């Protein structure tokens, strides 16, 4: 096509380039951010560590092993100021992956901007702030649904006037796909989620009717882009249409600009493979196409994972490589010179319409149930997701779904990229200690009276109906810590445990392989005198329970009695329930990199309880070197993402139980 | 008279450790009474026989209701309340087993957190095994073990008809948890849920009018129903496990029911009926109609059970089972 062609419309501005990052400490992360910005990244995406996400100070017992692991620890205003040292917030666009404690981290951000002398009306960025998907997939929730929804609505109501360029909430379909959602479920459940927030805002007395269209306009989405990238194009187009329809029909938003479907993307990390990890670069490129090709449904911000995420933490170089993908796509190719490539495409239009029709029907079902919150509490959505995820994994196991290097085309030359100890990033083990020391020093220098007053005002706001934001910003300035802010809310709201969704329908029939393992388990149970009983749970603060749930479901399907303990367990709780429940084996799942400390604590606890013979297996993102250490410490098997054959895992678990029985 | 049964020695040792509140012993005992290997069964029988005839004081409570009614959250709140009053609690949570694979997901545990670090709370989940919607023999055995250690024992099951009557035979006080708006009066009556429970709970009172309406329907239904002209009128309690409203009153109502049972002598009668029903169900499940016939039929079995008011359910079931096997063996050799 010639440059003068009418289809060429001058070059569009590219989306924001981001990299989800943060680790060890505020200082270390600040250095990383500045390097990334110097290399051409155009926005920031802050990853917080799990104690920050779940509202604990670094010295809390539940924080043990987790400080600085999956993101940066932010315990107070000093940390937040260090994180953005030398980065003027009135000129930055910052996305923060924060949910249960989002109001607090936004308060710290605003306070930091104020100390920088920035006008908060200029602050641009996003707080993820989507609690529904935390209950369904990601697991870093703290409070029950209703008070959580109130916190979100407080932020929506506050930002619409005070931080008019801020996106108070990013409705996440990303984590729904990770939990197994089909495109239809992704569309329907994320829309149901947005409706819950908008309805809640509409019902509030302190939100004037005239603000609703602006609020609608400030809600943005966070999508996943999987490898089926043609369908992903259709999904984004379907969501664009459905959002416009909702704005018009349900909320009476007249300005089409305010009805625009704005979304950011992280392409699929779940589909990245541990086997032949270099292939992930190709996957990432194709997935990026799914959300950039269609101009009418193009993402506003894109973050690409690193190719080696299934192996461990990526190094700066790995992240840089992903940034280069974006730069080449936006600056070297001609993509941004054209209008929408799919306008008039019958194929894309047909698939989009199909997705829309099915998604509308599923959305209607959820709304009839009472909406997203009701469908969390009755486990409807979670059960549908676990079912879809089970079906997806069955596809990979049976070979119906091809995953190159994993279940097909497995043989190949050794990759030079993964050689050596330096192939992944290691978090400095001293980071936790250093963070606790900084916290202690911070506590010593603050004014105790001011802290007390600020917390009392916060408590009043939380108990009453005042917006929590002003009181939280005052807390930030006064020197309140993340743990103190969260404890104040915990005392008023209580804590929540979400339904697990593992009690799903059984498959109509089992595969031959599953049936074989079931017979084996049955025979072993006869020998044991009672059915083989397994405990499945997740120690630590990591809430990504999708893997543990799938193991629990398969264990049931091969005839085991499964005690599914869910997330956020201390080693002590795991040991106690292993004994009280009388299980034959324990399966632990950890994805936060805190396996070293937590698993060793469980093993020690078992020895003390006289249960040293109870076999323990561990699954998660565990580098080879760590796996060897775990086995040395007494873990009987270590499973990583390359172990996709769950029947083999079940068979090995039966082996271990059989051996322990013979020996006992 | 049924003589003491089973392997006394080891059982006595375990019973002693249970008496001392040894937590590991509770778990060992629960494993033992669930074990089907012949040598273990003999030991388990001895243990259970001793415990059942010895244990009387613990309050046995059944908690049942449809999935989604909020049983686990309610149990969590109740456990906290009892602990606050200084009482210890053992819980058995029963979940259904797959009829096809025998597997089971015992997932409720994650919602009951009250006892995570508290030595005064013990939690064991169990699969219903082969009884459709009902309780396996292991539930009774488990309850007897826990009743020998804790002040209260709660058996939690999903209510789907059959299990209510199974649980009713196992406990002193049966609590039915209703889901607000889940059904009109007719539905409750059809499901037969109005007949057995001693206390009704409408959870999720925070839902407001819907919960009030459900309470009204239950109260109206109870007024219509035919219940024994006893001293006890089942109360309908409106609670919110979520914000704790009404939980104290519910705990008081459970105590009041227990006092009423004791005052009227109904407690002993009820436990006796429960024992008898267990023996009958257990023998029938194990040996079927032929087995019952070998004893001379269901009526004969009842007479045998009646004749021995002091024996434990376990010893009775075991003795009758051996008798059936003997009779069948004789018949087998006679016809050969």
What does it look like?
Chain A is α/β, with parallel strands linked by helices. In chain A, 50% of the residues lie in helices and 10% in strands. Among the domains of chain A are: 434-492, no CATH class; 512-663, 3-Layer(aba) Sandwich (Rossmann fold), CATH 3.40.50. A 5-stranded parallel sheet of chain A has the order 1-10-9-8-7. In chain A, helix 4 links the parallel strand 4 (93-97) and strand 5 (124-127). In chain A, helix 4 crosses helix 18 (468-478), helix 10 runs parallel beside helix 11 (279-290) and helix 23 (595-608) packs parallel to helix 24. The longest helix of chain A has 24 residues, at 346-369. The model of chain A has no long low-confidence stretch (mean pLDDT 92). With 336 residues, chain B is an alpha/beta fold. Chain B folds into 3 domains: 1-54, Single alpha-helices involved in coiled-coils or other helix-helix interfaces; 56-264, P-loop containing nucleotide triphosphate hydrolases (Rossmann fold, 3-Layer(aba) Sandwich), CATH 3.40.50; 265-336, no CATH class. Chain B has 12 helices and 8 strands. Chain B has helices at 8-19, 23-33, 38-54, 71-84, 137-147, 162-168, 185-190, 209-224, 247-264, 266-294, 298-306, 313-335; strands at residues 59-65, 89-95, 104-106, 121-127, 152-158, 173-178, 199-202, 236-238. In chain B, helix 4 (71-84) crosses helix 9, helix 10 crosses helix 11 and helix 10 (266-294) packs parallel to helix 12 (313-335). The model of chain B has no long low-confidence stretch (mean pLDDT 84). The chains are: A alpha/beta (664), B alpha/beta (336). At the A-B interface, helix 20, helix 21, strand 12 and helix 22 of A face helix 2, strand 3 and strand 4 of B.
